[in-house]
Amino acid sequence: MFKTLLVTGAAGFIGSNFVDAALEKGYRIVALDKLNYCGNLENLVDARQNDRFTFIEGDVADTAQVLALLQTYQVNSVVHFAAQTHVDRSIKDPRAFIEDNVVGSQHLLDASLQYWKTLDEASQRAYRHIHISTDEVFGDLTDDEAPFTETSPYRPNSPYSASKAAADMFVRAYGKTYGLPVVIVHPSNNYGPRQFPEKLIPLMIQRALAGDTLPIYGTGKNRRDWMHVSDHCRALLAVIEKAKANETFNIGSGIETTNIEIVETLCAILDQKRPKADGHYRDQIEFVTDRPGHDWRYAMDTNKAHEHLGFSTGVSLQAGLEATVDWYLGNTQWVEHILSGQYRQWIDSQYGVKRED
Ligand code: TYD
Fold first, then answer.
1. CA–CA separation, 192 vs 202, rounded Å?
2. Ligand 1, closest atom to CA 217?
3. CA-CA to 220 of 20 to 30 Å: which in 21, 94, 128, 143?
4. Which of 27, 115, 160, 281 is catalytic?
5. pLDDT (tens digit, 9 = 90+) per residue, 307-354?
6. Which residues, judged by CB distance below 6 Å to any ligand atom, belong to the binding site of ligand 1?
7. What is the pLDDT of residues 21-40, one digit of tens each?
8. From the CA of 149, how far away is ligand 1's center (Å)?
9. 136: annotated active-site residue
10. Whose C-alpha lies nearest to ligand 1, atom 3?
11. CA–CA separation, 243 vs 40, rounded Å?
């Protein structure tokens, strides 16, 4: 018998990549997504060919609907990706982050708990409510501080990370108070195919190809731990199989890269793969006003994931960035569909209008 997972946010970037990886492993997937601006059914084209896959449009905050799904499909574990994830959007509209990330996650916990209580003892023991958090709940690091561990204090700095930290607290509380077998995962910055082009890497690829400026916030020396989404998905499959209840895991590449290094690498890859008629893509780089409260450095100590889950990174940054550029070059239709009214409004309000249409 295949195990069945309820995957929330399944039509988003990481969610859809996870769905493909889990189907490949033989899981049965019940996919839930409310298809907001970054939830895209095109991300699930392959999955929808698979008879172990079911898609349901809906909101994690609808406890009754989620409970009915859990019961109907006799779900074995929940993997909760659905969230508002973009820091810049959270600065402009924090409330949506409280609603989706905090209230939504708490409603999902309620449905999960109600369902879990109805299971027999063996199924209860095997059940996991896996909550995808972020490394950003730990705040940021100076150049000299040691990387984040699972026991680093919570010090969120943006409305986004504050909302994720609040949700984590509820997950922890449901584990401690009600006995729901929860696991919290703190992944670092993900990149790869199907990432919405508001995040650094796909934004830069898309703008470079469109001949737009490449806006680098502040000095460009802020550092992130970049992990290819396929590595993250592999780690999550190991979490489902191996993680004990009430555990938390940091997942990342363990390698730090500055934003300017990322953008210059992307420009060099594009120079090779899609040379400009004259000049280089890096000529489009423009340093712009810094993001308010911009976290300086994220770095991950992933020893626990290595020891408990056998996790280690598989994709090097160079190979991952090249593959990502290839994906965006090969999927221009996907990008064109994304460039809808809502996306354009965001780009215009964030970076100013610089196009002719
Ligand atoms: P982002 O992809 O938004 O992820 P996060 O803020 O969650 O780390 O941004 C990654 C880094 O890139 C971050 O330091 C902010 C920076 N950045 C820019 O310099 N310019 C941009 O236009 C964007 C979107 C991000």
1. 8
2. 19
3. 94
4. 160
5. 999 999 999 999 999 999 999 999 998 998 888 767 777 888 888 764
6. 87, 189, 199-200, 203, 215-217, 222, 224, 259, 291
7. 999 999 999 999 999 988 99
8. 22
9. yes
10. 199
11. 30
160 catalytic? Reply is yes
- Residues 84-140: pLDDT tens digits? 999 999 999 999 999 999 999 999 999 999 999 999 999 999 999 999 999 999 999
- How many angstroms separate the CA atoms of 96 and 99, rounded? 5
Q: Does 93 qualify as catalytic in the annotation?
A: no
Q: Is the pTM of this model over 0.85?
A: yes
The atom number, within ligand 1, closest to the CA of 218 reads 19
pLDDT single digits (tens) 46-84: 999 999 999 999 999 999 999 999 999 999 999 999 999
What residue's CA is closest to ligand 1, atom 22? 215
pLDDT at 353: 60
**Three-state SS annotation for the chain:** CCCEEEEECCCCHHHHHHHHHHHHCCCEEEEEECCCCCCCHHHHCCHHHCCCEEEEECCCCCHHHHHHHHHHCCCCEEEECCCCCCHHHHHHCHHHHHHHHHHHHHHHHHHHHHHHHCCCHHHHHHCEEEEECCHHHHCCCCCCCCCECCCCCCCCCCHHHHHHHHHHHHHHHHHHHHCCCEEEEEECEEECCCCCCCCHHHHHHHHHHHCCCEEEECCCCCEEEEEEHHHHHHHHHHHHHHCCCCEEEEECCCCEEEHHHHHHHHHHHHHHHCCCCCCCHHHHEEEECCCCCCCCECCECCHHHHHHHCCCCCCCHHHHHHHHHHHHHHCHHHHHHHCCHHHHHHHHHHHCCCCCC
Is 293 in contact with 157 (CB distance < 8 Å)?
Answer: yes
Tokens 């859809």 belong to 16
Measured in Å, residue 200 CA sits from the centre of ligand 1 at: 5
For ligand 1, atom 5, name the residue with the nearest CA. Answer: 87
